[in-house]
C-alpha cells in the first residue's frame, strides 16, 4: 500500500538527514525533525525528547568527531500510508574521533515519520546495536550485515 | 491525525503481545506478527527477518526463563494514519532466568504496524538499550525512566 511517491519522499528525507549528520551540520539535521521528536539513541539516557534536547546532543556529539562522519545506509525499507510512515535501515558509521579512535560499526535504525503541512518530518528515531548476552553485556560493535 | 480508534487498536495489540511474551506463549505472540516481520532485537545478530526466524528465537529465549517474564509497558505513544502506525514505549523486563540470574532492566521499544485484512500486525520491532560510551562499551542495563 506504500505509494511510490511516499517511498521516494521518505527516502529523500533519510538521505538528506544522513548527509547533514555526515557534514556535522546541526541546523541542517534539525530541519528534518518534528517539533516533538522522541529519540532512542546509542548513548544514554533511555530517551531524548524534543528538539532542544536533540540539538544540544547533536552539537556535543559532533564536537567529538575530527572531520566528517561517514554514514552508509543500507536495506532501507519504507512503509507508509497517508501522513504516517516508518522506515528501517542498517547504517555503517565510521570516521575519526578527536581522541584518535576510529569507530567503524553497523547500527540498526528505525524512524517514524509524520507528514506535517505537506512535508515529511522525523517524529521518532531509534538507533541501536544489540549487546552480547555472554555475561560481558558488551555492545556488539563488530557485527556486519 | 491519529484516530482514537487506531490508538486503542494498536494499544490492544501491544498489550496482547506483551501478555503473550509474559506467558512465554510462542504461538500467542506469533499471532501478532506480519508475515515479513523484521526484528532488531536485544541480542545479535543485527536483524532477524521473517516469522520462522522469530518463532525459533522466541522458543529458545523463553527456555532461558524460569517462570513468567514480567513486561511492564510505559509511555506508549501511537502515531497512525490509515493502515500504517508506529508506536514507542519504555518496557521494564524482569523475572528469573534458568541460571538463577534476575534481570531487571528498562528497554526502549519501537514497533511498526500494518493493518492487514483489517487487523493490525507488527511488521517491525526494535528493542534496545543504549550503551555506555566510556570505553567500556557496556550495555546500559541500569537506566531508569
Oligomer classification: homodimer
- Largest sheet data of chain A: 6 strands, mixed
Instruction: State the helicity of chain A in percent bands.
Output: 10-25%
Helix-strand sequence of chain A? HHEEHEEEE
- Structural class by helix and strand composition of chain A: alpha+beta
What portion of residues of chain A belong to β-strands? 35-45%
Number of helices of chain A: 3
In total, the number of domains of chain A comes to: 1
Outline the structure in words:
Two copies of one chain form a homodimer. By secondary structure, chain A is of the alpha+beta class. The first copy, chain A, has one domain (4-128): Nuclear Transport Factor 2, Chain: A (Roll). Helix content of chain A is 25%, strand content 39%. Chain A is built from three helices and six strands, in the order H-H-E-E-H-E-E-E-E. Chain A has helices at 4-22, 26-30, 51-62; strands spanning 33-40, 48-49, 70-81, 84-94, 104-116, 119-128. Chain A has a six-stranded mixed β-sheet with strand order 2-1-6-5-4-3, with helices on one face. In chain A, strand 5 (104-116) and strand 6 form a beta hairpin. Chain A is globular, with a radius of gyration of 15 Å. The model of chain A has no long low-confidence stretch (mean pLDDT 97). Chain A binds chain B through residues 1-2, 38, 40-47, 77, 79-86, 88, 90, 106, 108, 110, 112, 114, 123-124, 126, 128-133, 136-141, 143-145, and chain B through 1-2, 38, 40-47, 77, 79-86, 88, 90, 106, 108, 110, 112, 114, 123-124, 126, 128-133, 136-141, 143-145.
Amino acid at each position: 500500500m506504500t505509494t511510490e511517491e511516499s517511498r521516494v519522499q521518505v527516502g529523500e528525507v533519510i538521505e538528506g538527514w544522513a548527509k547533514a549528520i555526515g557534514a556535522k551540520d546541526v541546523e541542517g539535521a534539525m530541519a528534518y525533525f518534528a517539533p516533538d521528536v522522541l529519540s532512542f539513541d546509542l548513548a544514554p539516557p533511555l530517551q531524548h525528547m524534543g528538539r532542544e534536547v536533540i540539538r544540544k546532543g547533536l552539537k556535543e556529539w559532533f564536537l567529538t568527531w575530527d572531520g566528517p562522519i561517514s554514514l552508509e545506509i543500507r536495506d532501507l525499507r519504507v512503509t507508509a500510508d497517508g501522513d504516517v510512515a516508518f522506515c528501517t535501515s542498517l547504517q555503517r558509521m565510521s570516521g575519526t574521533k578527536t581522541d584518535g579512535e576510529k569507530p567503524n560499526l553497523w547500527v540498526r535504525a528505525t524512524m517514524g515519520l509524520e507528514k506535517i503541512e505537506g512535508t515529511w518530518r522525523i517524529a521518532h528515531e531509534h538507533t541501536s546495536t544489540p549487546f552480547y548476552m555472554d555475561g560481558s553485556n558488551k555492545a556488539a560493535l563488530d557485527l556486519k550485515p
